[in-house]
Amino acid sequence: MTASRVLVLNSGSSSVKYQLLDMRDGGRLAVGLVERIGEETSRLKHTPACGESRERTGPIADHDAALKAVAEELAADGLGLDSPELAAIGHRVVHGGKHFTEPTVIDDTVLAEIERLIPVAPLHNPANLTGIRTARALRPDLPQVAVFDTAFHTTMPESAARYAIDVETADAHRIRRYGFHGTSHAYVSRATAKLLGKAPDEVNVIVLHLGNGASASAVRAGRCVDTSMGLTPLEGLVMGTRSGDMDPAVIFHLMRVGGMSADEIDTLLNKKSGLIGLCGDNDMREIRRRVDAGDERAKLAFDIYIHRLKKYIGAYYAVLGRVDAVAFTAGVGENAAPVREAAVAGLEELGLAVDAERNAVRGDEPRLISPDDARVKVAVVPTDEEMEIATQTYALVKGSENLT
Ligand code: AMP
């Protein structure tokens, strides 16, 4: 029997999301989430494929306790971490810097390098590292693979990756555009090619990952050539709580005239801006409900969101020169038909259009929503970051097995 299961771990600062997948058929054996780690009211929700969801509430002190609890839940379903069927653990790592261009088997050197990147990813990499260390302690013998959110974007040319600031200063502080959501952009651009009946290297795709965080990418022949997030996930599109693009001088103004500290501005731009800052809501369902009820602030927020999105579609169209498809994904992109309709409205001259009936249909499968004769296809392609992490992890582990 060859080991065919991969456990995918996505460790946040106070949460761990996990999925156990069987790579023979892509089946999900269990999915779950531990949240509010370190608080009195921690909660673990575990859903095995073979039965009902179970919940544990009560304090879970740290990531170590969280992973042990996850291991117990999996073991209760006969899916324990000690099973010989477990081939590897795949970890989502947010920041891989310039050098991690591929999924990487984790050893002490790789851990040290992820740690070295903490200054450019202070919120995410420490939590990812904690998850890796805890999982390694639980199964030291098992291959553990880091799959980086930035990796897909490392193919960006310098002209897209560099900010136009003094080169020595930028290099001294590793300031450049890294981009994020790479696992999703990789998965969705490939799935879009498949939907068009083409190989990934035959198509140019604009991917719009619109979730609570949001980013766009321009993918030429399977390789990312530009993306909207930068040094951090703050740049680019209007998001649930992040401002996206802004004149950097706003920050100096807030410091000098508004008397705000760097930390206060960081919180303002990352947590209290975007849709929530504009209208008090960051859920597109609620915003649409308010727009339909005639709420002016919600309408302004929606219009600003769409205006920015449209600018990126136009910019990436120009970057690519020829576009075969525009793909919408993530919570908003997959579900909010009015966002898709408005983002593409008026772009007929670019060959882009949405068929109203197709756009209104809901579903879990990749689908085209453009008219049959559209020059550029518009698609809805549900993202699956866990499957992508598992696929990359398994391919790496099996590939190296075949070499030995
Ligand atoms: P994600 O970060 O990909 O999980 O996306 C979460 C966001 O998707 C939520 O904040 C909502 O704004 C949006 N969303 C989820 N479901 C819907 C829906 N049915 N209609 C509109 N927006 C939705």
TrEMBL record:
Keywords: ATP-binding, Cytoplasm, Kinase, Magnesium, Metal-binding, Nucleotide-binding, Transferase
Active site: 149
Tree of life domain: Bacteria
Major subcellular location class: cytoplasm
EC number(s) on file: 2.7.2.1
Signal peptide from the UniProt entry: none
Binding site for substrate: 92
One function term, GO molecular function aspect: acetate kinase activity
Reactions the enzyme catalyzes: acetate + ATP = acetyl phosphate + ADP
Positions contributing to Mg(2+) binding: 10, 385
Cofactor needs: Mg(2+); Mn(2+)
Record-marked site positions (Transition state stabilizer): 181, 242
Cofactor note: Mg(2+). Can also accept Mn(2+).
Pathway as given in its UniProt record: Metabolic intermediate biosynthesis; acetyl-CoA biosynthesis; acetyl-CoA from acetate: step 1/2
Keyword Signal attributed: no
Location in the cell: Cytoplasm
Classification via Pfam families: Acetate_kinase
HAMAP family: Acetate_kinase
NCBIfam families assigned to the protein according to its UniProt record, in alphabetical order: ackA
PANTHER family xref list: ACETATE KINASE, ACETATE KINASE-RELATED
Subunit: Homodimer.
Family in the record: Belongs to the acetokinase family.
Reported function: Catalyzes the formation of acetyl phosphate from acetate and ATP. Can also catalyze the reverse reaction.
Protein name: Acetate kinase
Species of the source: Streptomyces bullii
